[in-house]
Design a protein that fits this description.
The complex is a heterodimer of chains A (about 200) and B (about 600).
Chain A: E1 4-11, H1 16-29, E2 33-40, E3 48-56, E4 69-74, H2 77-82, E5 87-96, H3 103-106, H4 115-125, E6 128-132, H5 134-140, H6 147-156, H7 163-172, H8 179-195
Parallel strand pairs in A: 1-4, 4-5, 5-6
Antiparallel strand pairs in A: 1-3, 2-3
Helix pairs in contact in A: 1-7, 5-6, 6-8
Chain B: E1 3-7, H1 8-18, E2 23-26, H2 34-42, E3 48-51, H3 55-67, E4 72-77, H4 80-94, E5 100-106, H5 121-126, E6 130-131, H6 136-153, E7 157-162, H7 163-167, E8 169-173, H8 191-194, H9 198-221, E9 225-228, E10 231-238, H10 241-249, E11 253-258, E12 260-262, H11 266-274, E13 278-282, H12 288-295, H13 314-323, H14 357-366, E14 370-371, H15 396-407, E15 414-418, H16 419-436, E16 440-446, H17 475-481, E17 486-491, H18 495-507, E18 511-517, E19 529-533, E20 552-558, E21 565-569, H19 579-583, E22 589-596
Parallel strand pairs in B: 2-3, 2-4, 4-5, 5-7, 6-7, 10-11, 10-13, 14-15, 15-16, 16-18, 17-18
Antiparallel strand pairs in B: 1-8, 6-12, 9-11, 19-22, 20-21
Classes of the chains: A alpha/beta (about 200), B alpha/beta (about 600).
The structure holds thiamine diphosphate.
């Protein structure tokens, strides 16, 4: 069993930690040793959230070195850019396209990087970059909150773990009344990556 | 055995369950808060849990419960240990009757603390055993071990985690809970042991010293200390989270991994040192192990290479190891891409709808010196407010204000303090102001919760950690009873009221208290309507932007005369608190009709 390292990045309130918790648990259910570490910015809501997740035969450190991340799962493009130094030339990136400008942009004078710049930076850092409009898919499903599960659905197609393992882990963490919604979100995600071209 | 993925804090809660702990107390503080929260959620029927008013109270409560025959746990963040320590020191002399462990969650890297202190020193000062778990499995197991040691040696035991242990997750094998007594017997009346009056306490001191000798003997064979032999050219002594990082960076080295780091197993260390050519100690923060090992006359390198500040994460450890020649090359891939330096920051801001906003709006306008305190409202020190000029530790603001006042600062100063912080340690300082007579306004920012650390209860809430009803302590009568003669309570969402209240208190020649009352936006569940800016009326003056509200953004439209951007409100973030409408000079902000706020609550 080879070690696999994942960086999960997003903004507080997007369900980034839930996504990385699920990713870690899926690894455990698939028979790996698993460790994860979360770093939250000062602001719980609206701050940057970064999670390291590792699967392996025997994982020592929950924190991964720069240049050692095999995958980046990003729920927000600006947060994806902050993670590029963790990637290596063979890394794979899956990034939600919906931008969430921080207050330094929306109420201040800083500038949010244009879409082309986001693409350029991510593509220069990794082997393959997929963009998914998970927030739009979630909105279509009637709840923006499930964008993270759409992303997980998309991400699951890049890994070699049975789909039912993913579903059972996700559903075990969701309150009964949201089960159907999340199932939908996951399936939407599964089909969305096939549709979007790797770029 | 059940296999689960737990954070260090969840594992500690599980450890309390498996150790037969029946009472758990603490005061919230990152990164320790989830321990009691988990106990209250998962082990409610087996373990009584409470948020005490401060860490010292939590420790006294724990002492009383342990004296009475219950296994007990206390939790604190690292600086809370300073508050707790007075109570700790007497329990060292008395011993504890039943097991008592204290969990301190330290914060190397300073993610959420006002300093980077290394609490391992407390065990040297207090002469008590210290356990340092490296992952969640150990976090759970060490609570069980700690309770065992506490009972075997009749001493409180300190378990020290760091943020990375408390907040990282790893796999844990769960065990069972032992049977514990439902009832306790009559209270033990052993005065010579439990009354620390000088004549009796003096006789206890040699007991404490002998206990430490016995503990050092125990440490030699303690199962939590072990050697992992590999190549003999380099030997590493380490503990806690650092062990995991070092294992990764030095895969060939031999390790002495210490789970019990005070008192140290001298013979074990000596034999390990003799078995390796070069000996290094890798520990985050202070040279706690290094100094003790040197004092044994053993040649060891530590802080020369690994500085006593910040975390020693694998990246930094690799760098330091390369620079000092401990390794020749770093394993793993090297990254080629650096993060663009001009990315916009996500700076922390008060939430949309935060009741603290109106106070800082005025403090910024009035420009007086502000002695600040710790809580969400500490964000008042940042732009656009810049209206907190000191902040040191919890409860400090009121004493600092009194100091400024008696020193003769020519301006009328104020202190800002949250409700939980006021109950924690602001009260004695306010009494001091009353008794010693100084002038100054203490603003108690009452948002009805301990927001910063995750919305815990406090004496001002009408519920407890375990969900029981509690008498809601009103601040105004409390403060009046403390002898403050000028006390006003204002609605924090009415900026006119806040201004009038502040001015009235500032004019008062003596200690005064202004209570700005408004429920935390994260707890307020009353449906409200979001607001919008009428672009035809907006004159792009920027008054609303000075509120630093994340829902108010610069629009693409500009004012024709000035070229300045007009304001716009993000309906997805606005919770309809109404403050921006009140500061707009031209009534351009109005309720967005039929639009229920979607802002997160
Ligand atoms: C001695 C100590 N204990 C705990 C903490 C962690 N802590 C920081 S602020 C805070 C409470 C803040 O609550 P409150 O004063 O009500 O302000 P709010 O965040 O609700 O605005 C706590 C528990 C600390 N910094 N120091």
């Amino acid at each position: 069993m080879k070690n696999i390292s994942f960086l999960v990045a997003g903004v507080g309130g997007q369900g980034t930690l839930l996504a990385s918790d699920i990713l870690a648990e899926v690894g455990m259910e698939a028979g790996y040793d698993v460790k994860k570490s979360d770093v939250l910015g000062l602001a719980i809501r609206g701050g940057s959230v970064l999670s390291h997740v590792r699967w392996g035969e025997k994982v020592a450190s929950p924190v991964v070195r720069k240049g050692d991340m095999d995958y980046l799962l990003a729920l927000e493009p600006l947060e994806a850019m902050r993670g590029v130094e963790f990637l290596h030339p063979k890394s794979i990136v899956l990034c939600n396209t919906k931008a969430m400008p921080p207050i330094t942009v929306s109420g201040g004078s800083e500038v949010y990087p244009p879409r082309e710049e986001v693409m350029r930076v991510l593509q220069s850092a990794a082997a393959t970059v997929y963009f998914v409009d998970a927030s739009a898919e979630a909105e279509r499903l009637g709840n923006l909150k499930v964008a993270n599960v759409v992303m997980l659905g998309a991400f699951s197609t890049l890994l070699d773990v049975p789909r039912k393992t993913w579903e059972s882990v996700i559903l075990s963490r969701i309150p009964q009344k949201y089960v159907a919604l999340n199932q939908h979100a996951f399936h939407t995600g599964c089909s969305v990556v096939k549709r979007s071209q790797p770029s | 055995m059940n296999k689960v993925l737990l954070s260090g804090n969840e594992a500690i809660a599980r450890g309390a369950y498996e150790a037969g702990v029946q009472i758990a107390t603490g005061y919230p503080g990152t990164p320790s808060s989830e321990i009691l929260a988990t106990i209250a959620k998962k082990y409610k029927d087996d373990i009584y849990a409470e948020w005490s008013t401060n860490e010292k109270v939590a420790m006294d409560v724990a002492a009383g419960a342990a004296y009475s025959g219950r296994r007990t746990m206390v939790t604190t963040k690292q600086v809370g240990m300073n508050v707790l320590s007075d109570a700790l020191l007497y329990t060292v002399y008395t011993g504890t009757e039943r097991g008592l462990v204290i969990i301190t969650a330290d914060d190397p890297g300073m993610f959420s603390s006002q300093n980077e202190q290394d609490n391992r020193w407390y065990t040297k000062l207090a002469k008590i055993p210290l356990l340092e778990p490296a992952d969640s499995q150990e976090a759970k197991d060490f609570v069980v071990l700690g309770i065992g040691l506490s009972e075997e040696f009749d001493t409180p035991v300190l378990i020290r985690t760091t943020m990375r242990v408390s907040h990282s997750k790893s796999i844990v094998l769960e065990g069972e809970r032992p049977s514990v007594p439902q009832k306790v017997g009559p209270f033990v009346r052993d005065q010579q042991k439990y009354v620390c009056t000088a004549m009796w306490a003096k006789k206890r001191h040699p007991v404490v010293e002998q206990r430490l000798v016995n503990l050092a003997r125990y440490a030699e064979d303690a199962p939590c200390n072990h050697v992992e032999w590999a190549e003999h050219s380099l030997g590493i002594i380490t503990s806690g989270a650092t062990y995991a990082y070092a294992r990764e960076v030095f895969p060939q080295a031999s390790f002495l991994k210490l789970g019990m780091t005070f008192p140290l197993p001298e013979e074990l260390i000596r034999s390990f040192a003799n078995g390796v050519e070069k000996l290094i100690v890798i520990e985050e923060l202070d040279p706690f192990l290094e100094e003790q090992i040197r004092a044994m006359g053993i040649d060891v390198i530590g802080k020369e290479i690994f500085p006593p500040y910040d975390e020693l994460l694998p990246d930094r450890l690799t760098q330091l190891a390369l620079e000092s020649g401990l390794i020749d090359e770093a394993k793993g891939m090297t990254h080629s891409v650096t993060v663009p330096t001009d990315l916009p920051a996500r700076t922390p801001v008060l939430c949309a709808g935060c009741p603290h906003r109106s106070t800082y709006y005025w403090l910024n306008k009035m420009k007086m010196p502000v002695a600040g305190d710790i809580g969400c409202y500490n964000l008042g020190c940042l732009p656009p407010f810049n209206a907190q000029h000191t902040m040191g530790c919890m409860g400090a603001s009121v004493g600092v204000l009194h100091g400024m006042s008696i020193a003769g600062v020519p301006e009328h100063a104020v202190a800002t303090i949250g409700d939980s912080t006021f109950f924690h340690s602001g009260m004695p300082a306010l009494l001091n102001m009353v008794h010693n007579q100084s002038r100054g306004v203490v603003i108690i920012m009452d948002n009805g919760t301990t927001a910063m650390t995750g919305h815990q209860d406090n004496p001002g809430t009408d519920w407890t950690l375990q969900g029981k009803d509690a008498p809601h302590v009103e601040l105004e009568p409390l403060v009046c009873a403390m002898g403050v003669e000028k006390v006003l309570t204002v609605n924090a969402f009415d900026i006119g009221e806040v201004e009038r209240g502040l001015k009235e208190c500032l004019a008062y020649d003596g200690p005064s208290v202004l209570i700005t009352k408004g429920l935390c936006a994260q707890l307020d569940r009353t449906p409200k309507t979001s607001y919008m800016v009428n672009p035809n009326k907006c004159i792009a003056c920027g008054a609303c932007l000075k509120l630093g509200c994340p829902a108010i953004v610069k629009a693409d439209k500009v004012d024709e005369k000035t070229g300045e951007p007009k304001a716009e409100i993000d309906p997805g973030l606005c919770v309809g608190c109404d403050i921006c409408r009140q500061v707009c000079p031209v009534e351009a902000i109005q309720i967005s009709k039929g639009r229920e706020s979607q802002g997160e609550r």
